[in-house]
């Protein structure tokens, strides 16, 4: 049952393919049930099958991998389809390379396993290279077992699950795993192909996952990258990823949810919102309500990612891999130290905010590939979901504590530049996680960089929500919610230990999350709800839209400041020294071609001739500086 060979049972297959003479099995609790998803006991491979679910280790006693299992997780309804699409995309790559494999539905939850049998065994280094590139390519892939040659294990095809279901073969024949046909050389080629196809670090640099329909045009302006994703025929090789890229580029271009719903009706790249993957190579139509709800949830997620990536400068290829290697190593060490020294970053509300600002700076450092990054206080605040005053206080505290330093102060319209202090690594040849005298090869370096960026993006976007503002449930509640992405479930004590707070405080925060059904009871503690109800909870608390209001406020403040800087530059210069090209605050409505002429409206003045900043702000709020506005300032 669940195995594609009529001759073998699930245990027969296990006996033939297990690289070791023992498997790991679950242990029943006192009530006879299986509550915890762990396999603590060893069971010898023999004629009799175990009475509880079992898993086989992927490598033999010499730590040579005989089997590979790519585990695509499906913890939420949205993630189920993403996992299926990721699995199908990897299966398509394996078919192109003629690598025999088996695709299984791991349990009733909808997760997927892709199995490969290796002839002669593959070294941990080769498998780790494949695992890292696959993890950077497919977001739902859990690659931990492929990085653990000692104990990495998975339930084989046909093996039972603790929920009563079994691992069912969907494509391929399970007996292929006993034949062991794939060579280590083919795995190395797989790593190269995955490296070539993995998505870029930023959505503006991504490429379509399939052929593009050149006749399709969106109803509103979009970047070339967004146009390509929207026109990707049938969503390409990974429809769920393509659909999210469509939404992300649309959110970055200033579209509304209504615009996205309109585009989803006809855009080839948004096939994911019109039909669903059945898991068996076909798609079936969605109901109108399901399609609308799914798009709305993904739209909220796209807005969070757009807010996170909006402050990033234009991407440039790193010229010095040594410097990039040092940056990646420092950020890797930073995240490790934040995790093991949780008490330093969780004991006060201020410390929690400092931690978020610190990883926001680390994110900018990784994305730019530079030690010193320009970041305004307002940009950091919008990236982290904090207020600008809180962000400024956190920057000052981190500087005083020696975690960061200001390389250059703000100048006019230029943001200040910040740099992480290189104190996260100790002696370079012993304790450091990656010695400087043993640099990582470029493929491993870029794969680790992508993994770190994804980790930080998940941490920042999960808590970047109206609900986790101070008037909502607070920033610590957002940290807990983000942490439950990394862990299937947490107890009160384990969550308190990971975040560095008291168990009593943690119980209070978890109770608030439970009140709004953001977490649910789990056999191992507390887990995320399968549905994302953050927006509904924010609406109940009356904080929905707070981050949008804050973003508009900061943008208006920026415009007023730029306008005043333009006015001040005019006041303190002669006509010959004034700019001959449009100023940063200019608008086409006021543009003039004559050198020395004003190319922006005059800053409002009070009757005594002083600058009237309040009136300037009112003009900005009313959209007077917008070139499409029908009004014109009389002093223009």
UniProtKB/TrEMBL annotation:
Biased composition (Basic residues): 275-286
Region of interest (Disordered), residue spans: 272-293, 574-621
CDD domains reported in the protein's UniProt record: AE_Prim_S_like
Composition bias, Basic and acidic residues: 605-620
Protein name: MarR family transcriptional regulator
Organism: Cryobacterium flavum
Lineage: Bacteria, Bacillati, Actinomycetota, Actinomycetes, Micrococcales
């Amino acid at each position: 049952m669940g195995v594609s060979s009529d001759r073998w049972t699930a245990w027969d297959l296990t006996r033939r393919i297990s690289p070791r003479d023992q498997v790991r099995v679950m242990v029943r609790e006192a009530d006879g049930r299986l509550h915890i998803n762990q396999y603590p006991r060893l069971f010898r491979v023999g004629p009799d099958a175990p009475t509880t679910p079992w898993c086989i280790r992927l490598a033999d006693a010499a730590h040579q991998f005989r089997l590979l299992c790519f585990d695509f997780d499906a913890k939420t309804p949205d993630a189920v389809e993403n996992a299926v699409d990721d699995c199908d995309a990897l299966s398509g790559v394996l078919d192109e390379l003629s690598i025999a494999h088996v695709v299984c539905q791991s349990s009733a939850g909808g997760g997927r396993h892709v199995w490969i049998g290796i002839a002669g065994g593959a070294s941990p280094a080769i498998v780790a290279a494949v695992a890292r590139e696959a993890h950077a390519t497919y977001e739902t892939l859990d690659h931990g077992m492929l990085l653990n040659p000692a104990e990495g294990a998975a339930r084989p095809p046909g093996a039972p699950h603790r929920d009563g279901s079994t691992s069912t073969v969907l494509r391929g024949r399970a007996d292929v795993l006993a034949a062991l046909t794939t060579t280590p050389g083919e795995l190395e080629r797989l790593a190269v192909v995955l490296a070539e196809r993995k998505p870029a670090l930023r959505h503006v640099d991504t490429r379509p996952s399939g052929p593009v329909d050149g006749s399709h045009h969106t109803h509103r302006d979009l970047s070339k990258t967004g146009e390509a994703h929207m026109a990707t025929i049938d969503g390409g090789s990974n429809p769920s990823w393509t659909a999210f890229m469509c939404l992300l580029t649309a959110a970055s271009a200033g579209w509304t949810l209504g615009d996205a719903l309109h585009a989803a009706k006809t855009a080839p790249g948004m096939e994911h919102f019109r039909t669903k993957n059945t898991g068996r190579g076909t798609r079936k139509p969605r109901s109108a309500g399901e399609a609308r709800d799914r798009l709305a949830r993904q739209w909220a997620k796209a807005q969070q990612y757009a807010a996170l990536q909006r402050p990033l400068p234009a991407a440039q290829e790193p010229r010095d891999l040594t410097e990039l290697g040092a940056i990646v190593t420092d950020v890797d060490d930073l995240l490790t130290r934040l995790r093991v020294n949780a008490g330093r970053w969780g004991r006060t509300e201020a410390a929690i905010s400092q931690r978020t600002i610190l990883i926001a700076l680390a994110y900018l450092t990784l994305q730019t590939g530079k030690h010193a990054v320009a970041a305004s206080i307002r940009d950091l605040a919008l990236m982290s979901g904090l207020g600008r005053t809180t962000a400024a206080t956190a920057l000052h505290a981190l500087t005083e504590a020696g975690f960061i330093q200001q390389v250059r102060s703000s100048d006019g319209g230029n943001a200040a530049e910040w740099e992480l202090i290189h104190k996260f690594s100790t002696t370079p040849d012993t304790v450091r996680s990656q010695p400087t005298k043993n640099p990582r090869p470029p493929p491993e370096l870029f794969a680790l960089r992508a993994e770190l960026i994804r980790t930080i993006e998940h941490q920042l976007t999960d808590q970047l929500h109206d609900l986790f503002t101070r008037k909502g449930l607070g920033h610590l509640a957002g940290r807990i919610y983000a942490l439950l992405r990394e862990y299937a479930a947490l107890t009160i004590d384990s969550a308190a230990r990971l975040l560095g707070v008291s168990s009593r405080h943690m119980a209070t925060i978890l109770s608030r999350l439970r009140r709004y059904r953001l977490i649910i009871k789990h056999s191992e503690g507390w887990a995320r709800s399968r549905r994302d109800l953050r927006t509904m909870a924010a609406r109940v608390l009356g904080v929905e839209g707070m981050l949008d209001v804050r973003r508009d406020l900061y943008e208006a403040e920026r415009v007023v400041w730029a306008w005043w800087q333009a006015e001040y530059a005019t006041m303190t210069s002669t006509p010959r020294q004034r700019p001959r090209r449009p100023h940063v605050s200019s608008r086409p409505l006021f543009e003039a071609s004559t050198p020395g002429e004003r190319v922006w409206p005059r800053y409002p003045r009070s009757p005594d001739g002083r600058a009237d900043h309040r009136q300037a702000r009112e003009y900005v709020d009313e959209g007077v500086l917008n070139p499409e506005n029908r009004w014109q300032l009389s002093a223009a």
